[in-house]
Design brief:
This protein is mainly α and about 100 residues long. The chain contains four helices and no strands.
Length: about 100
Amino acid sequence: MNWTFLFIAAALEIVWAAGLKSTAGFTRLWPSLGVGAAMAGSMALLALAARGLPIGTAYAVWTGIGAVGTAIAGIILFHEDASALRLVCIALIITGVAGLKLLAK
């Protein structure tokens, strides 16, 4: 169940990080409330996951999935650069996250 909490927390991290753009610096009420709710949910689920996982692994996986997901969301939603080098860097993060998951006890 800890891994499930962690993956949902990471998905919520992607939601709030990508959603920051729609808040216009927290000047738009509804997008700001949505981002705040996603932030709170993400942190709460990370805390639950950390009860049964090493904190270093939980945090690294959470931020890694969040970083990759947010980068991909930026490419798809905001037409950010998708150069080969950027995609290689994203693949390296995925490799590190997968390695941490495989090595976790």
